[in-house]
Specification:
This protein has 111 residues and is of the alpha+beta class. 25% of the residues lie in helices and 14% in strands. The chain contains three helices and five strands; from the N terminus they run αββββαβα.
Amino acid sequence: MPAKKNSLKLNNLQLRTLVLAQVIARDERLSTAHPSGEVTLEHLPHAHGDHVHVGPYVVSAKEASGFANPAVWVALARKGLVKDSGYPVTLTPEGLAYDTGLDDKFEASDH
């Protein structure tokens, strides 16, 4: 039986932040992989205007607002998806593998 989507009951802001962090973690220019299976995000993007560039994607600033919200990182750390709630952000293997159900919501941008 496949794992249930959002089994940790993350709220929408936590889910959006985690999936965007997973996108950054897949980009070797923006992250560092460790032998432990963890990945450190070397840079979190900042909004300019009404949007944010996250890897090959452009998302609305609202969708990426969790990056600047300490409570989101505390919640993700408490659930074991990030190593701790400080900067730089390090995703655990569980955080990298967590199915947010949002992967198919992105389209590459030429912006």
